[in-house]
Specification:
Radius of gyration: 16 Å
Helix content: 25-40%
Number of helices: 5
Number of strands: 7
Largest sheet: 5 strands, mixed
Strand order of the largest sheet: 3-2-1-6-7
Low-confidence stretches: none
């Protein structure tokens, strides 16, 4: 039995990374879909695409998988972003539980402390460092088009910690 680590960078603009001893590393955009908002104001929302997210989890035997989810941002001054992050988190968690995968949570500062250089200031520097480190650790995935490699680095953090 080989352990497979799935790292989830929370949010509809996040990523899902997969590492393990017997699997080729992977990184995916969080699978999402856009649809009409459910409020009176005409607007769209972005939601987790449950079928596409399930197809990522369904490829592995649940006993082999440890999913590590980054805690969602909760900030009352950013109501719309917080609502989106929490809605995404709950949808992903529901699917993870449905498939019977083990899971735990990690704060961004914990995995970043292990894998990113010290002294990074601001979100833009953090994203650049995440992408640079991700490309260095996983050169075969260098062509992945996203501002950062957070999901993959969360999975790598879990592998190194043997969660």
């Amino acid at each position: 039995m080989s352990k497979i680590y799935i790292g989830i960078d929370n949010g509809v603009t996040g990523t899902v990374g997969i590492v393990g001893d017997d699997v080729f590393p992977e990184i995916h955009h969080t699978p999402v879909k856009k649809e009409q908002n459910y409020t009176k104001k005409k607007d769209n929302i972005t939601r987790v695409d449950a079928k596409a997210f399930a197809s990522i989890l369904n490829r592995f035997h649940p006993a082999d998988v440890m999913v590590v989810m980054e805690r969602p941002m909760v900030n009352p001054t950013r109501f719309k972003a917080t609502t989106s992050a929490l809605r995404c988190f709950e949808a992903e968690l529901t699917l993870i539980e449905h498939f019977g995968c083990s899971y735990c949570y990690v704060d961004s500062k914990d995995w970043q402390k292990m894998l990113l250089p010290k002294g990074i200031k601001g979100a833009d520097e953090q994203k650049k460092a995440s992408k640079d480190i991700g490309k260095r650790l996983f050169p075969a995935l260098s062509d992945f088009k996203h501002p950062d490699f957070d999901g993959l680095l969360i999975a790598e953090y879990a592998r190194r910690k043997n969660l």
